[in-house]
Specification:
Shape: globular
Low-confidence stretches: 240-246, 396-401
Structural class: alpha/beta
Largest sheet: 6 strands, antiparallel
Number of helices: 12
CATH architecture of the largest domain: Up-down Bundle
CATH topology of the largest domain: Glutathione S-transferase Yfyf (Class Pi), Chain A, domain 2
Mean pLDDT: 88
Radius of gyration: 23 Å
Order of helices and strands: EEEHEEEEEHHHHEHHHEEHHEHEEEH
């Protein structure tokens, strides 16, 4: 799949923006704060319904505007598609495909992208929530129907937490909460599916991440991924995932649903005391390791950066293997500045086979020449015309001549 055209309206620092893309590598160059990342962020939002920089949609709407619109023309197997989303300051967001109304959560069915940015170091070094968010976004891209399952789980979790807080306030005992069993059943149904799909995804990524890490680093440091599940007695959100914080270990030979129910029963008293659901996929984590040691806390900055990059490349490889949309659009936002010349060259080689790669950089010289054939310069929220871009490139070449 490739993006052939992007139109933005009232998005970030763009009142209006129109950009034409080419197959292969597309490089956007501009000083920091000019708006180049906003372009690729918009495409990332179209496929994940989220920004890699902020948690709230409100920050994406231009100051003084009521709504922002992202509209992209896509092409796959000779078929053209127009996908768009309207992000509203008040009220629900709206989405369309070929001018027909759809639910926003259905957009990943039509467009797939994988974005890597410096902020993604937080996936490796940050809290469990960052890793859960990454895997859930990838799950939705890989299996779009799971967006509905995750939405159902979040609503159930919210209702269950509300009931637990009420029980804590009123002093009810565990055996007096018959209504809680109804929410338990729903939580187990939706949560078990999410857990199983995450575990399958982790296993599916095991070989691709080893391949991707070796392609970037040029060495095998044994990168690995291991699920850390609260239903098995380890709560990643309590005291650094210590077993004592989570309670009794549930036998692992049971089904996911049975382990979930057993874990809920074991932690019922603690849940009522805290007014909080302490078991489920919202309390899980994924352990990242290099050379059999946790990346978080042991790996150097360079190793952590390489692991995060390999994780994104592995995700892109998995999607291109399994998705009916073909290659995802690969987005590298300000990545090359963090790499030495050797790793820049290796990364350029690793992404060269993808149908389309979008790259942003503050300095043109940071990006290998092989990825700079189609270069667009951005200045103060303005896409410079081709003539101005050619003049800038010519001036730089003459200065280095």
């Amino acid at each position: 799949m490739i993006v052939t055209h992007l139109n933005l309206s009232e998005y970030r620092n763009y009142a209006v923006a129109d950009v034409t893309f080419a197959p292969g590598a597309n490089l956007f160059v501009g000083r920091n704060g000019q708006g180049k990342t906003n372009l690729v962020e918009a495409l990332g939002y179209l496929s994940t319904l989220g920004s890699h920089r902020v948690s709230s949609d409100q920050a994406l709407i231009r100051a003084g505007a009521d709504a922002a619109v992202i509209r992209a023309r896509l092409q796959h197997n000779g078929r053209d598609l127009l996908a768009e989303v309207q992000i509203n300051r008040s009220g629900a967001n709206r989405a369309q495909v070929n001018r027909g109304q759809i639910k926003p959560r259905e957009l990943p069915r039509y467009f797939s992208s994988v974005l890597f940015a410096p902020e993604d170091l937080g996936i490796v070094r940050g809290d469990p929530s960052a890793r859960r968010r990454f895997f859930d976004q990838l799950l939705i891209l890989h299996t779009p129907r799971l967006a509905g399952v995750m939405g159902d789980y979040e609503r159930t979790l919210k209702q269950r937490n509300s009931l637990l807080k009420s029980a804590r306030t009123s002093g009810l005992k565990a055996n007096q909460l018959t209504t809680l069993e109804i929410w338990d059943d729903r939580l187990v149904v939706f949560g078990s599916e999410i857990i199983d799909e995450r575990v399958r995804l982790v296993h599916a990524l095991s070989q691709p991440i080893r391949d991707a890490y070796a392609s970037v680093v040029g060495d095998d440091h044994g990168p690995s991924l291991t699920p850390v599940l609260s239903i098995d007695g380890v709560d990643a959100e309590d005291n650094g995932a210590s077993e004592s914080a989570a309670g009794p270990v549930v036998p692992s030979d049971l089904s996911t649903a049975d382990r979930f129910r057993s874990a809920l029963a074991a932690r019922r008293k603690s849940e009522i005391e805290r007014g909080l659901t302490l078991v489920g996929p919202h309390r899980d984590d994924i352990l990242f390791e290099l050379n059999s040691l946790p990346v978080k806390g042991y790996a150097s900055h360079g190793e952590s950066w390489s692991f995060a990059l390999a994780l994104k490349l592995a995700s892109a490889e998995l999607l291109r293997q399994d998705s009916s949309l073909g290659d995802p659009v690969l987005i590298l936002d300000d990545v090359f500045a963090e790499l030495d010349a050797h790793r820049r060259a290796r990364l350029a080689a690793a992404v060269s086979s993808f149908e389309q790669v979008l790259i942003t950089a503050a300095v043109l010289a940071d990006v290998p020449e092989a990825l700079a054939a189609h270069t667009v310069h951005i200045e103060a929220g303005r896409i410079l015309p081709a003539a101005e871009t050619a003049a800038i490139v010519g001036d730089k070449a003459e200065a280095h001549g």
